[in-house]
Design goal:
The complex is a heterodimer. By secondary structure, chain A is mainly alpha-helical. Chain A contains 14 helices and no strands. Chain A has 2 domains: about 1-30; about 65-265 and about 270-295, Orthogonal Bundle (MetI-like fold). Chain B is an alpha/beta fold. Among the domains of chain B are: about 70-190 and about 360-445, Periplasmic binding protein-like II (D-Maltodextrin-Binding Protein, domain 2, 3-Layer(aba) Sandwich); about 240-275 and about 470-535, no CATH class. Chain B starts with a helix and ends with a helix. The chains are: A mainly alpha, B alpha/beta.
């Protein structure tokens, strides 16, 4: 109580944020109950018949849950690891550049794809790779090689999807690291220079360690949503092409397709709950491990 | 993230709604009381209107017999697609009349076509107060009705819309019944949405190709195009191969309709249900598609094509369509006649090949009152006006006469072009409240009418659409099967699998794993009950 009175202004300032999360994140959790009921127009949420785990059934009914989970996690891991490593590398390179206009220009060009919508991306990709008149095959023909049907080769798409994800998001994550680098005091570098450290040593012993905390925070944030796939990316690039599903189907696209035919709030909630629960367990575990290793970097 | 946020919002909405529902109950009680006490003054204004219209002055209460219009209400009206630009003007006009005659105003809402199916489901399941909503077989009217999303209209009709009840023929009311109850007001306009071959007649003549009248001649036509016009796609297809290859093929093969789950029912023997998937008949279809694929009639990347079916044809990228309905064919003719007057399109309805054509089933266009409606009586009375009152009907179908359209020799004529005019013909997507007595047609529609007349001679009733499937008992299996179908059957249907027999085997095995047998058994049971109930033999 004493605490509340003494810091009442601070608590007052906290109130809007608390309310925000209460209304947007905690109250709606009541809806989780939908996952265990049979949705019916005649009943409200709590008098609908309770059906236990029946709503979760469709997830494993076609025998693909394991593959879907692995695909989802696999892609997201690739996105997180590659995305961050390349973003850090680019950020460091850019920060070492002296020419101001060149730096700005590069940064803008890298940022630009972030604003390209996935729908447009899918059209671009289709026009590059389609069999009959795509850019890629026309190019091959110029060199006298035979056409390749990219849209029937599942393995290729693993790389293509990762590539397009990076292309689209690199600029954005790089800016975060660039900001972190700008925050590093010049004095460290000057001191290192006087001590005779060359540029690679300065990067390796000053910049990289200073970025570690930013990296860990971003990592933890993204791990929390590791079960949530990039729906737009996969849905737009792959769409109806069942030939590619083995390597490109993720939970989100699967759930979307299933529930397009039978819209059922119960089943949709069940799928969402599965994703959230998995993400929750994962983030708790990783956070626990990080806290064990170094308490300062843990999120909570 | 976006999806998660959406789900949160949905859940929040549900939570809020349950609160407002409690509040709403109390509210409407109070309002009811207020209405009763204020009845004397309100009925005064009511009789004034009645006096103006003359005959009803004696009955006093209100212009509409049977329903209480003493309280002013706003009706929420929901239609799919996009509303016309001039909608606010039309809405104001309509509201002026409705306020006077029914003491109600209407808000016309549109879902837009993007993700309309998700939005439609949300509108019905979130409990939002809606008074009138569009229904069709393709919005799954039967399933929603069966699951209790709509109000039964049987008792409401004689009270709130007696004229409308008389206007719609009795057999139509029978046809839209689900479990013995009426849930939607069907449209009475008779049309055909059956398919037919569409091709480039100018090219056919130029290269002296056979006229597509069946599968064999159509294939010969495509072959001729491939040889003579290598840069042209022989036919237009897109990623929805189930609809633009499979169902068109089965229509030519005299199936009763777009049957789900690989069921097979022939029109001549509707009580004999068999398993189409995996049968010799199915294998034959897949082998034909394989041949089409190998010969280059179906584009190799068909599963990734997102164009509409008609665009490639009207823009000169493709030379035919496997199947399209007369009205859409006519639209293509009109669009081609302005952009490429030297082209010519040909059409051959499947009905002439199969020997019968089915006019649309009454459930194809209709309006229902969702369970969440607060003013079902007024909504129905308003809908009656929309259909039967010429002023309401013409205004909502064609806009303002003189400003949006003119009538010349009995034909409808758009003022200006579709770009400049804020209300094109049937701009409000008013397919459901078309009234054949008031309907105006563009001169170019004569072509469609000619086809309709031809089909009228061989018409037979649609057997399939009245069937209301209830999939609650196999919901999980249905969802799982959808996956298997997309992953293993779509490529087969597009002729993309090298070994058809093996591909079909894999698909069948996966489908069985997803619970195909259970679905088919349950579906067959329901179908048999339906044919028995309707006396279909």
């Amino acid at each position: 109580m004493h605490e509340l009175v003494r810091n009442r202004v601070l608590f007052l300032m906290l109130l809007p944020a608390l309310l925000f999360f209460l209304i947007n994140s905690y109250f709606p959790m009541v809806g989780v109950y939908y996952a265990f009921t049979q949705f019916d127009f005649n009943y409200g949420l709590f008098d609908a018949p309770f059906v236990g785990l029946q709503n979760f059934e469709f997830l494993w009914k076609s025998g693909t849950l394991v593959r879907l989970t692995l695909n989802t996690i696999g892609y997201n891991l690739a996105f997180i690891v590659l995305g961050n490593v390349i973003a850090i590398a680019c950020a460091i390179l850019l920060s070492e550049l002296r020419s101001k206009w060149f730096k700005k220009l590069t940064q803008s060009i890298m940022f630009l794809p972030y604003f390209v919508s996935f729908v447009i991306l899918s059209v671009i990709v289709y026009n590059v790779f389609n069999y009959d008149s795509g850019f890629f095959n026309t190019l091959l023909a110029q060199f006298g090689a035979g056409p390749v049907d990219v849209y029937s080769k599942p393995v290729v798409w693993i790389f293509l999807i990762i590539l397009f994800y990076l292309w689209k998001n690199l600029g954005y994550s790089m800016v975060i690291y660039l900001a972190a680098i700008t925050g590093i005091s010049e004095e460290y570098y000057e001191a290192a220079k006087i001590d005779g450290a060359h540029i690679f040593q300065r990067i390796w012993y000053i910049t990289v360690p200073m970025l570690k905390s930013t990296f860990v925070v971003l990592l933890l944030f993204s791990l929390g949503s590791i079960m949530k796939g990039q729906f737009d990316l996969f849905y737009q690039l792959i769409g109806n092409n069942g030939l590619l599903y083995n390597t490109t189907d993720i939970l989100d696209t699967y759930v979307f397709r299933s529930l397009k035919v039978t819209f059922d709030i119960g089943m949709a909630t069940a799928a969402g709950l599965y994703q959230s629960l998995f993400g929750f367990v994962l983030i708790m575990t990783v956070n626990y491990i990080i806290r064990k290793i170094n308490d300062d970097y843990a999120l909570f | 993230m976006e999806k998660k946020a959406g789900k949160r919002r949905l859940a929040l909405l549900a939570a809020l709604l349950s609160v407002t529902m409690v509040a709403g109950c109390g509210g409407s009680n109070n309002a009811g009381n207020a209405g009763n006490t204020g009845g004397a003054t309100n009925s005064g204004s009511g009789s004034e209107e009645a006096g103006a219209s003359g005959s009803n002055a004696g009955t006093g209460e209100a212009a509409q017999p049977g329903i209480d219009t003493s309280k002013k209400v706003e009706l929420q009206f929901y239609m799919l697609g996009d509303g016309p630009k001039d909608l606010p003007d039309i809405e104001a006009e309509i509201n002026k009349m409705a306020a006077e005659e029914l003491n109600a105003t209407v808000k016309f809402n549109y879902t837009s076509w993007t993700d309309w199916d998700q939005k439609y489901k949300l509108l019905l399941s979130s409990g939002q107060a809606i008074d009138l909503i569009f229904t069709a077989d393709w919005t799954q009217y039967q399933s929603y009705a069966k699951r209790g999303a709509f109000l039964p209209l049987d008792d409401l009709l004689p009270k709130a819309a007696p004229e409308l009840q008389k206007f719609v023929p009795e057999p139509m009311w029978e046809d839209v019944k689900v479990d013995g109850k009426i849930y939607t007001v069907p449209a009475t306009y008779k049309e055909y949405v059956t398919n037919g071959f569409v091709w480039r007649e100018d090219l056919r003549k130029k290269y002296n190709l056979p006229k597509p009248t069946d599968l064999v001649s159509y294939e010969a036509y495509m072959e001729g195009i491939r040889q003579n016009e290598p840069d042209l796609m022989p036919a237009s297809f897109n990623s929805d191969v189930k609809n633009n290859l499979h169902y068109i093929y089965t229509e030519l093969n005299k199936m009763v309709g777009a049957l789900p789950y690989g069921m097979g029912v022939k029109y001549e023997s509707p009580t004999e249900v068999y398993t189409y998937w995996g049968s010799e008949e199915h294998k034959e279809e897949l082998k034909i598609m394989k041949r089409w694929q190998d010969n280059g009639y179906i584009p190799k990347n068909v599963l990734n094509i997102k164009d509409t079916m008609q665009d490639p044809l009207t823009s000169g990228k493709a030379a035919s369509m496997f199947g399209d309905n007369p009205t859409r064919y006519n639209d293509m003719v009109i669009s081609v006649s302005t952009t490429h007057p030297d082209w010519e399109l040909g059409y051959y309805p499947f009905g002439l090949t199969t020997g019968y054509a089915t006019p649309v089933h009454p459930v194809h266009n209709g309006f229902a009152i969702p369970k969440s409606s607060k003013n079902p009586e007024r909504a129905l009375a308003f809908y009656e006006k929309l259909v039967l009152d010429k002023r309401y009907n013409l205004l909502t179908q064609y806009g303002v006469e003189g400003k949006n359209y003119t009538v010349e020799d009995g034909y409808y004529k758009l003022v200006g072009t579709s770009q400049t005019n804020g209300f094109t013909r049937e701009g409000m997507n008013g397919w459901a409240w078309r009234n054949p007595e008031y309907m105006l047609f563009d001169k170019s529609f004569d072509g469609v009418k000619a086809i309709f007349d031809e089909l009228d001679k061989i018409q037979k009733p649609d057997l399939f659409l009245g069937f209301a499937e209830d999939y609650t008992s196999y919901q999980a299996e249905k969802a799982a099967l959808e996956q298997v179908e997309k992953q293993y059957l779509y490529p087969l249907q597009a002729g993309l699998v090298e070994d058809v027999d093996k591909g079909l085997e894999t698909f069948m095995q996966k489908a069985k794993q997803a619970g195909l047998d259970k679905i088919q058994a349950e579906w067959t049971k329901q179908w048999n009950a339906y044919t028995a109930e309707k006396g279909i033999k």
